[in-house]
Amino acid sequence: MTKKHFIALADAIREHNRIESAPEKHGHCSFNQVHLNMLADFCQSSNPNFNRSRWLRYIAGENGKNGGKV
Questions:
Q1: Burial class (CB in 10 A: 0-12, 13-18, 19+), 52
Q2: For position 23, what pLDDT does the model report?
């Protein structure tokens, strides 16, 4: 996988979690830290240049796609 794929996956996860956290979605499941760590393990195994901490921080909304401020 490439950086473009990792960003697209992170964007999909962010959107899913945003939708699932809406008040009318009680009982639905967002990606939690266990899920995200498993996906990050997979991404790391598919590309040794994968930046796990940047990817997880991007999903959490702590930084932008390239690691900078949002």
A1: middle
A2: 61
